């Protein structure tokens, strides 16, 4: 790691400790102050099943996110595993909250413990939980319009796929848990698929990490998904660590080697190839980068959350120019059903270095609530050199290309990429039965710089089933 990066990280770490902060790994909707969950946690607090929380939170005087509530549920489950004399009312509350926040636990890579019916025990009696596992069936229909005005549709084999995730989690020491998440994906290997996409149906290790208390915070170490704030700048798998701490300013410090082909040959050009990961960018090329991140969240009031992050990228390869990205975002509850979000990022590249995201959502599809639904409308502008690996499907590179042997932005290699994308999408989600979610999406994307490559329209139909 270069001396400048080490010094910067040291300063960032000291400044963050001088502030405050505990673990919001990423953000979710707030739990309304009238929700039953606050009363449930207050009862668990009084019963001694959870501790170390500000009592004002559970009298509705402070608002927490669904993610933060899910972390509290996890702590309650861990405590219940150690104390077999917990009363029936508390057990029922823990089970009810486990069901309520199941989707958040799954999204965060957190499984449930022995209160789940899908738990099993090994020969030594240790709990192994498989809940959070899920399968997905997805169909994407693409329509493209070229610069000459020709419109074509696509239904290639790769546009219809099956995905299955198997999650296992177990406590191996007091307060310490290990989790592994395996993924298999099958879509008949369409010709436009990058070689590194796991589409053969074989299982691969998606995540494998340990979590436990260190000092006044929580440490995660291993292979995990690093997706600060909304995942707009980076939502990449990597190997490294994340340390989360703080109560007023919730802070995460992480370092990870991004999940990409990697080389230490300093003279080898840092670029992408057909064997690279789909989703590479100017700041995250095919030969890999290290990413150091500090991100934080501060609740301005009951309805407004503020976020910030700094990303530093570097590589052992001398052809790579170290990157720096600043990100600022907010989430505002306009009503109990309507949430407004905004996100802006800027990198240190000389041009095409801005990105922004704005969304408004109405209601939410909750896996525990039959016939619940939600709508989201999003607008995105993602310039070519602004983000690392965005969660948005409106990328900082063209959506696909087979024009050359290299992964390209419609004929332009990623090492000299100057195009980005802008567009919008409309998403509808519905829960027809418990733990099943249907998603329908319309997406439109077009080039930012000129009209030299295809415009894209995509219609997605998706069905997911989650196991609790």
Quick structural gist:
The chain is mostly beta strands and about 475 residues long. The protein has helices at about 5-20, 35-45, 65-80, 90-100, 100-105, and strands at about 120, 125-130, 135-145, 150-155, 160-175, 175-185, 200-215, 215-225, 235-245, 250-260, 290-300, 305-315, 325-335, 340-345, 355-365, 375-380, 410, 410-415, 420-430, 435-445, 455-465.
How does this structure look, described?
- Keywords: Signal.
- This is S-layer homology domain-containing protein.
- Pfam families: SLH.
- The chain is mainly beta and 468 residues long.
- It is 13% helix and 41% strand.
- The protein has helices spanning 3-18, 36-46, 66-82, 88-100, 102-107; strands at 119-121, 127-129, 134-145, 151-154, 160-173, 176-186, 200-214, 217-226, 236-245, 249-258, 290-299, 304-314, 323-333, 338-347, 354-363, 373-382, 408-409, 412-413, 421-430, 436-447, 455-466.
- A hairpin with an 8-residue loop joins strand 12 and strand 13.
- It is globular, with a radius of gyration of 22 Å.
- The relative contact order is 0.12.
- The model is unreliable at 1-27, 111-119, 189-197, 262-279 and 398-417 (pLDDT under 50).
């Amino acid at each position: 790691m270069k001396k400048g990066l080490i010094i910067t990280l040291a300063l960032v770490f000291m400044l963050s400790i001088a502030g405050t902060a505990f673990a919001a790994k990423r953000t979710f909707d707030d739990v309304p102050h009238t929700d039953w969950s606050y009363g449930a946690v207050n009862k668990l607090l009084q019963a001694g099943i959870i501790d170390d929380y500000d009592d004002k939170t559970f009298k509705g005087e402070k608002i927490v996110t669904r993610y933060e509530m899910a972390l509290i549920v996890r702590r309650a489950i861990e405590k219940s595993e150690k104390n077999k004399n917990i009363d029936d009312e508390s057990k029922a509350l823990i089970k009810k909250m486990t069901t309520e926040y199941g989707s958040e636990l799954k999204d965060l890579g957190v499984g449930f413990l022995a209160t789940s019916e899908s738990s099993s025990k090994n020969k030594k009696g240790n709990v192994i939980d498989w809940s959070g596992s899920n399968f997905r069936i997805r169909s994407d229909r693409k329509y493209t319009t070229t610069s000459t005005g020709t419109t074509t549709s696509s239904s290639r084999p790769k546009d219809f796929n099956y995905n299955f995730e198997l999650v296992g989690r177990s406590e191996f020491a007091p307060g310490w848990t290990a989790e592994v998440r395996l993924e298999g994906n099958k879509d008949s290997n369409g010709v436009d698929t990058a070689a590194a996409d796991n589409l053969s149906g074989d299982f691969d290790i998606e995540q494998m990490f340990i979590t436990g208390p260190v000092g006044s915070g929580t440490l995660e170490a291993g292979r995990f998904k690093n997706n600060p704030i909304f995942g707009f700048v980076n939502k990449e798998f990597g190997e490294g660590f994340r340390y989360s701490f703080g109560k007023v300013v919730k802070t995460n410090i992480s370092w990870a080697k991004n999940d990409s082909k990697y080389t230490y040959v300093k003279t080898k050009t840092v670029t992408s190839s057909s064997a690279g990961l789909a989703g590479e960018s100017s700041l995250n090329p095919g030969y890999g980068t290290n990413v150091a991140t500090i991100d934080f969240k501060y609740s301005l009031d009951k309805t407004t959350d503020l976020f910030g992050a700094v990303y530093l990228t570097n590589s052992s390869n001398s052809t790579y120019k170290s990157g720096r990205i600043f990100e600022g975002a907010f989430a505002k509850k306009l009503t109990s059903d309507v949430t407004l979000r905004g996100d802006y990022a800027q990198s240190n590249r000389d041009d095409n270095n801005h990105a922004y995201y704005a969304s408004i959502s109405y209601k939410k599809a909750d896996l525990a609530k039959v016939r619940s639904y939600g709508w989201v409308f999003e607008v995105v502008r993602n310039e070519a050199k602004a983000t690392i690996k965005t969660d948005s499907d409106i990328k900082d590179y063209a959506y696909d290309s087979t024009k050359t042997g290299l992964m390209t932005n419609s004929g332009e290699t990623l090492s000299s990429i100057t195009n980005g994308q802008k567009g919008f999408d409309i998403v509808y989600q519905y829960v027809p039965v418990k733990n099943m979610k249907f998603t329908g999406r319309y997406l439109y994307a077009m080039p930012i710089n000129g009209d030299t490559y295809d415009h894209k329209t995509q219609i997605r139909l998706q069905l997911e089933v989650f196991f609790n």
